[in-house]
Specification:
It contains 1 helix and no strands.
Length: 160
């Protein structure tokens, strides 16, 4: 039985040695595989890192441009708002001027109508007076003719 135990111990020791050898061999192969993988992946990893850095720069640039554009758009919105307010004020001024013009035109029309009525009345009076003057002139001319016709008769009567 002691032989059997010794044999089992030797066998266990032998298995441990083989197990350790197999483990070292596995670790060596694993390290070699990892080194090979690192060698294969190093350029790719470097490329990815460079690409990521470029992407970060691009994102930063785009963010700055976007911020600048937003600020520019905000400025343009403010300008548009001021322009719309100015346009509103000008529209109100134009409406006020249009109202004043319409009122002035109405007043001028009313004054013109009053003046026209007055002139028509004066023209009517002038025509009436002209007619009266012509009638008076005809009458005076007739009387003058009658008087001239009677002058020789009166002169003969006075002389004689």
């Amino acid at each position: 039985m002691t032989n059997q135990i010794e044999d089992l111990q030797k066998e266990a020791k032998q298995r441990r040695i083989e197990s350790n050898r197999a483990r070292r061999q596995f670790l060596l192969e694993l390290r070699q595989a990892q080194d090979a993988l690192d060698t294969d992946l190093s350029p790719k990893l470097l490329q990815l890192q460079l690409s990521a850095a470029r992407d970060k720069d691009l994102i930063r640039t785009l963010t700055e441009e976007t911020t600048a554009r937003r600020a520019e758009q905000e400025g343009l919105r403010e300008q548009l708002k001021r322009a719309q307010e100015e346009l509103k004020v000008r529209d109100e001024q134009i409406l006020a001027l249009q109202k004043a013009k319409d009122q002035t035109v109405t007043e001028v029309k009313d004054q013109l109508e009053v003046a026209t009525t007055r002139m028509r009345r004066l023209l009517g009076l002038a025509r009436e007076r002209d007619t009266q003057w012509k009638e008076a002139n005809r009458t005076l001319n007739e009387e003058l003719r009658q008087t001239q016709l009677q002058l020789p008769v009166a002169a003969r009567w006075l002389s004689g």
